[in-house]
Amino acid sequence: MADQVLGERDQRLVTALQCDGRLSARRAGAVLGMSPRTVHRRWQALTAEGVCRVIALPERPDAVGALLLRIRALGGRLDALTAALVARPDIPFVDLSASGDEILAVSWTRPGTRDHLVFRELPATRAVTSVTADTILHAFAEAPDWRHDVLTEAERTALTPVTTAGHGTSDDIDRDIMAVLESDARAPAAAVAAHTGHPESTVRRRLARLAATGRLRTHVVVDPRRLGLTIDANVMMRVAPDRLDAAGRTLAGHPAVHGAFATTGVANLHAAVWVPDLAHLYQFITRDLGSLGVDAVETVIIGQAVKRPSRPVAARTPGR
Fold it and tell me: Which of 11, 92, 129, 318 has the largest CB neighbor count within 10 A?
């Protein structure tokens, strides 16, 4: 059941929430041609079954950067090392390669500093045989920006709220509200008010302002396999400097790409992709990347997504 692909209607409803995490059933039904009652019932079922959940993303300070880590380790110590990385709050993503000998992770860090994990802790671990750390120079697209490719452009536009330029500043009330929404971005104003102790009228006004100014960013946590996307892969490319920006922006708009970054290192452009099968991955590499002027490509297929923000840590299956 965990791998059962959702029907087209449910996939469209999940994608509608990607466009607006606090979307009303009435608005979704009007755009997608469904009754509000059906939309509400299916959203409730999808949430109750753990198929998807909507979270609010905390604000990330501008001073915080990120490293893309590739860690090779001895097979017998891989589980212990993975568990240690998962337990760290400064590491939001941990993947295991399908080959079973490599950990791929993202680590928050302060740009321009000697990261303690990379320079001290991992090299001192006997299980680790090699570490590569590339700094993210620019993010073209991140996971919350990704939209499953089942809606028309007109539907996506109609479901996506318009925000004003400039984010403004947050105070303690805003931070209290966002803290509640980080676990359930669809919590009604009354529930948020009950959790925070602030008047419901104040919460409603603040929610509207946070959404209008773009500070309330939501993310739909969903297993891509439920959307028919069974292959998860990281693609590392080398692109000429004068083509890097254009290539990154093009990748950011590709329906398979849920992350695109310019980085330091031999491969200066990284993409995280979800595709239905290996044939689609081959097509992505040979056709889509071939048109971007990519000089070299390395592809790592993910065997298990171990840690994701606000998703329960998956138990590792023996032999994977």
Answer: 11
Nearest to 258 by CA among 233, 287, 281: 233
Long-range contacts of 43-48 (CB under 8 A, 24+ apart): 43/13, 43/17, 46/10, 46/13, 46/14
How do residues 264-310 score in pLDDT, each as one tens digit?
999 999 999 999 999 999 999 999 998 898 999 999 999 999 998 75
For the record, the structure tokens of 30 come out as 């009007």
150 token code pair = 């089942």
pTM (predicted TM-score): 0.87
248 is a domain residue:
no
Is there a contact between 55 and 310 (Cβ–Cβ < 8 Å)?
yes
Q: Length of the chain, please? A: 320
* Nearest by Cα to 181 from 213, 207, 156, 142: 207
117 is a domain residue: no
CB-based contacts of 1, cutoff 8 Å, min separation 6: none
Whether the CB-CB separation of 53 and 17 falls below 8 Å is answered with no
Distance (Å, whole) CA 189 – CA 184: 12
- Residues 149, 139: Cα–Cα separation, whole Å: 21
Domain encompassing residue 22: 8-58+150-222
Instruction: Identify whether 44 is part of a domain.
Output: yes
Structurally, how many domains does the chain consist of?
1
Domain-located, residue 170 = yes
Query: What gap in Å lies between CA 69 and CA 107, rounded to an integer?
Result: 7
Neighbour tally for 244: CB within 10 Å: 20
CB burial readout 43-72, b (16+ within 10 A) else e: beebeeeebbbbbbbeeeeeeebbbbbbbe
pLDDT digits (tens, 9 = 90+) for 143-199: 999 999 999 999 999 999 988 866 567 789 999 999 999 999 999 999 999 999 999
